[in-house]
Every structure is written in C-alpha cells, then in structure tokens.
Design brief:
311 residues; mainly alpha; globular; DMT family transporter; transmembrane; membrane; EamA_dom; transmembrane helix
C-alpha cells in the first residue's frame, strides 16, 4: 500500500493541512493493521493454499463494505466513470496479493516488507511512460539507490537465491502498476469506490480458481485466519484512506516505513525470525532513498503550485 494510491480532493487537502498529527497517527495505525494482515497471511500458509487465503482476504473485505457502507452509500459504491481501468487495477492487485501470500510462506516478513518498499521507485520510474512525468536527476538517483538496497536484501551471487524472492519482486512490480492505474482512476472516481472495486474484483477473480484448490480447514485456527486476513485488510485500508484526508502525502510517506517495525516484531515474536545484516542494510538504504524521493516529490509539487499561483 502506498500514499500514491489515494488522492484526496483539493477541499480535503486544505482540511488535512490543519491536522497533520492526526494524519500521521492514522497512517501509523494503518500500517500496524497491514502488519497484522501480513502475519495472518503467513500463518494461513500453514493451513491452506495461497489462492484460498487471497480469496478470503477479498471476500471478507467485500462483505464488510457491503454491510457497513452499502446502506449509507448505495449505488455510489459502484459508480465509476472508468470501469475498464477499475477492473484492470483490481485484477493487478489480486494477482499481486497472490504473489505476496505465496512468498510469505518461504520468506521472513521483514524481507517481504523491504522488497515491497521498492514499489514507489518503480512507480517513479514508470510515471514518465504512463503519466507523462519525467523523472529528474535526483529522482533517478533515489530510484537507482533504492533498487541497490533491494538487491542487498536478495543478495544475488552471495547466497543461493530462493525462487520466492522473484515471486515477491514480481508482486512488487504489480503493486507499482496498480498504484499507477489507481492514480489515473482517482482523478474521476472516489477512493471508496476504488476500494470497493478492489474487493469486488479480487473476490471474483479468486472465486474462479478457488474450487480447484479449496481445502476445508480442519481446525478452528484455519477459519479464524481466513476471517483475519479480510478484517485486517479492510480496517487497514479504511484507516489509511482516513489518514490521507488529514495530511499531505509527502508528510505521510515516511511513516509508511514504520511497517518494517511491525514486520520485524511480529516475525520475531511468532516465528523467532530476526533479519540478518543484509536485510537490515538493505532496509536502511531503501528507506533512506524512499524518504529522499518523497522529499523531492514534495519540492516538485510545491514548485508546481507556486508556478500555478504566479499565472
């Protein structure tokens, strides 16, 4: 999940500038729930195939939105001016989640989190092609250094590289494409509508494959984990959207990296995993590059606003 996914309206941005502390607090809480989602998915891998866990993640999320938001918003939940793009971005995220849940079975939570932190760099690199944004020297420098940090985590040539790294990395590319298409659709559709389509299309796509892999949980833990991945995902995304309404993305972006804290903590408490020196080093490089990239994005946005006022 990235702050580039949701773009509040100008009115909301104006409101958000007065409550930055609330926005930051909500983002930190949101990434806590994302950490809980990651933990639940890793635990679920011991009870069911990834497709089943991904199906539960989106189906439970869909039911929650229908029950709690359906009576309030009605048809507004599905009102979109870019249906093909909504379907495309939602399919991308469903397949990406499949990659992430598959990788979690074999990798430490911290490793997966750090690799996913590469998504903003891919977004910045592809924005020129898809959105007409030309990265400058500083942005390209942060992109290159960020990818070096990811390579430090994967460490090709130093140790035998597990295939799960490449599955997760493929998922990270999917996240970037999802974020870019979401940025495109956010110009005309609300964040809640996009979130609903994410759950709806994800549930439909996974339901197609589900009959071929379904394994009925024989223990209560399996059913609870199927519920947990959906609940944590829904709550995390909803709080995330609230956070973006109260502060600018350039301020909030660095606090997304707090997720590494939850990943390390949960991984150690539940699985006894401690990241090695390569993961710590790579995480430091990726986070530093990501914060610098966010800073450059802020400066660029400020320059564009100043130029617009001068006209």
């Amino acid at each position: 999940m990235s702050l580039t996914e949701q773009v509040p309206s100008p009115a909301v941005k104006a409101l958000g500038e007065t409550k930055p502390l609330l926005g930051v607090s909500l983002i930190i809480l949101a990434v806590f729930f994302f950490g809980c989602l990651e933990l639940s998915a890793k635990l679920a891998s011991g009870y069911m195939p990834p497709v089943q866990a991904v199906w539960a993640r989106y189906m439970v999320h869909l039911v929650i939105m229908i029950v709690f938001l359906g009576p309030v918003l009605g048809r507004k939940l599905v009102r979109t001016e870019r249906l093909p793009l909504q379907i495309t971005r939602s399919v991308l995220l469903a397949l990406t989640t499949m990659c992430q849940f598959t990788g979690l079975k074999y990798l430490q939570m911290a490793e997966l989190t750090v690799i996913n932190f590469a998504a903003p760099f891919i977004v910045a690199a592809l924005a020129g092609v898809m959105l007409g944004e030309k990265p400058g020297v500083h942005r390209w420098a942060s992109i290159i250094v960020g990818f070096i940090g990811v390579l430090v985590v994967i460490r090709p040539g130093i140790a035998q590289v597990h295939w799960a790294y490449f599955v997760v990395l493929s998922g990270t590319v999917g996240i970037a494409l999802y974020l870019l298409t979401t940025r495109m659709v956010s110009q005309v559709d609300s964040a809640i509508t996009s979130l609903f389509f994410t759950a709806l299309i994800g549930a439909i796509v996974m339901s197609i494959a589900l009959p071929f892999v379904w394994q009925t949980p024989t223990e209560p833990e399996g059913w609870l984990l199927m519920l947990a991945v959906g609940v944590f995902g829904a709550i995390g995304h909803f709080i995330f959207i609230l956070g973006t309404k109260f502060a600018q993305g350039s301020l909030l972006a660095p606090f997304m990296y707090v997720q590494i804290v939850w990943s390390v903590l949960f991984g150690f408490i539940v699985f006894g995993d401690l990241p090695d020196i390569y993961t710590w080093t790579g995480a430091a490089v990726v986070i530093a590059s990501g914060i610098y990239l966010a800073w450059r994005e802020y400066l660029a946005a400020r320059g564009r606003r100043a130029a617009a006022r001068a006209v």
